[in-house]
Design a protein that fits this description.
single chain, alpha/beta, TIM Barrel, 2 domains
């Protein structure tokens, strides 16, 4: 259980005309922040939840997978993250997203994945600030909704461009920027440099969100203090823990927090699992769910203070049918519960 000492927070954290419930955001993560996961995280207290990265051209041309990634039914505030390098496609995708109910459009300028960078999107845009600026301008002009940008510090240690890019984004009308405290060259190696985000905070007057390596509730006040940011964004720390952003928000508000017990964790995981099956269909949904089932089992083992039941975890992640995967997953939780009670 954590301390309930309140942490000084930025007053009136707003994104354009949107007022998030609190300054704790769930990051966009491909293959992770599907609609079912976002609904749970939002219900459990995340201030904002962001969709998986959606390819702008695919969304603009009504690709089925892109449409599912951008789905936001049941969310009070719906944020869609777009990726691309063509201003016209970005503008059209933004119009499609807002027309389908998006409250905020986020632009991806930080993804380090080779597939994305190879297409000159994501963090590749950190090497071409003029193109990045044109993408931002086209997106802002296309929609009557707040536009935000997520970026990294720079391409590598010799090209820290986030302060300049953030200033350009603000000049074009962007409502908020999020900065992951690593360069693209680092991928996810080493530790995120929260202190380096302060240079962006000092450069702009719009809200800045700090991102990278927030994995325990105690990390949040340290991240805010080091960065000077207005809010925090949680990525990998929420994998298998849809409740974690809400815990962080409660901790920052000075409330006592405790992870859900194993029964609640199991129920939330199964809610997510059934949501994936409903979203993608049973055959495709079970494939999408496999990594999530593993993460939930890992989180449950950590909560129980017992070893991960490796055989049951492997069975849940490799089961050929939705029913078999569910049975193996429940068996893993039953074993963890028995061990924790022993």
């Amino acid at each position: 259980m954590s301390s309930n000492t309140p942490v000084p927070l930025a007053q009136n954290f707003v994104v354009g005309r949107v007022s998030p419930a609190n300054p704790v955001l769930l990051a966009p993560m491909s293959g992770v922040t599907d609609l079912a996961f976002r609904r749970i995280a939002a219900r459990l207290g995340a201030g904002l939840v962001v969709s998986e990265m959606v390819a702008s051209r695919e969304l603009a041309t009504a690709d089925d997978e892109a449409r599912l990634r951008a789905e936001g039914e049941g969310l009070g505030v719906h944020v869609v993250q777009l990726a691309g390098r063509d201003p016209s496609w970005m503008a059209e995708a933004a119009r499609v997203a807002v027309g389908a109910g998006a409250s905020i459009v986020d632009i991806n300028m930080g993804c380090p994945a080779k597939k994305v960078v190879g297409g000159h999107g994501g963090s590749a845009l950190l090497k071409d600030l003029d193109l990045a600026t044109r993408l931002i301008a086209a997106t802002v002009a296309a929609v009557d909704a707040p536009v935000t940008v997520k970026m990294r510090l720079g391409w590598d240690a010799d090209s820290i461009v986030a302060p300049e890019l953030a200033a350009r984004a603000e000049a074009e009308g962007v409502a908020m920027v999020t900065v992951h405290g690593r360069t693209r060259a680092q991928f996810y190696e080493g530790r995120a440099d929260w202190g380096a985000i302060r240079a962006i905070v000092d450069r702009v007057s719009i809200p800045v969100v700090a991102n990278g390596d927030l994995v325990a509730v105690e990390d949040a006040p340290a991240m805010l203090q080091a960065s000077g940011a207005d809010a925090v964004m949680i990525g990998r720390g929420a994998q298998g823990r849809a409740w974690f952003p809400g815990m962080v928000a409660a901790h920052l508000a000075g409330r006592q927090v405790k992870a859900p017990d194993l029964d609640m964790q199991r129920d939330l995981a199964l809610e997510h699992y059934e949501g994936l099956l409903a979203l993608y269909g049973r055959d495709v949904g079970v494939r999408h769910a496999r990594k999530h089932l593993g993460w939930y089992i890992d989180a449950a083992a950590a909560s129980a203070g017992t070893p991960v039941p490796a055989a049951l975890k492997a069975a849940a992640q490799s089961a050929p049918t939705a029913e078999e995967a569910r049975s193996a997953f429940v068996a893993a939780y039953d074993k963890l519960g028995w061990r924790a009670a022993a």
